[in-house]
Amino acid sequence: MSLKLVAVSSPDASVRERIAGVLAERAGGAEVRRLGDAVFIVETDAPPSDVRDWLAPLLSPEDALIVVEFERWSSRGTSVDAAWLRRRGH
């Protein structure tokens, strides 16, 4: 398991909500945290390319998506669930 940062750029709010749903379905709702409107942290065994492929069918040609895998991080702010992160190796 590793953490992925998933960021989407879409003017369509429904795309962002559908992405949230797919991430929760594929990774499990307890493994997904939302940061703001269009950024998610997800813990999953799936490689970034698989996560991208889960979400690509939801995007239109003008939308953008990036999935980044990382193992070291630092955070600040109340929108980041510090207890959730600590349980995932931080």
Describe this structure in words.
The protein has 3 helices and 4 strands; from the N terminus they run E-H-E-E-H-E-H. With 90 residues, it is an alpha+beta fold. The model has no long low-confidence stretch (mean pLDDT 88).
Brief synopsis:
The protein has helices spanning 13-27, 48-55, 82-86, and strands at 2-9, 32-35, 39-44, 64-70.
What is the topology?
Blueprint: E1 2-9, H1 13-27, E2 32-35, E3 39-44, H2 48-55, E4 64-70, H3 82-86
Antiparallel strand pairs: 1-3, 1-4, 2-3
Key terms:
90 residues; 4-stranded antiparallel β-sheet; alpha+beta
Unreliable spans are: none
Rg over CA atoms: 13 Å
- Largest sheet, if any? 4 strands, antiparallel
Percentage beta strand:
25-35%
> What distance lies between the first and last C-alpha atoms, to the nearest angstrom?
13 Å
Number of helices: 3
Q: How many individual β-strands?
A: 4
Average pLDDT number: 88
Widest sheet: strand ordering: 2-3-1-4
Gross morphology: globular
Helix share of residues?
25-40%
* N to C succession of SSEs: EHEEHEH
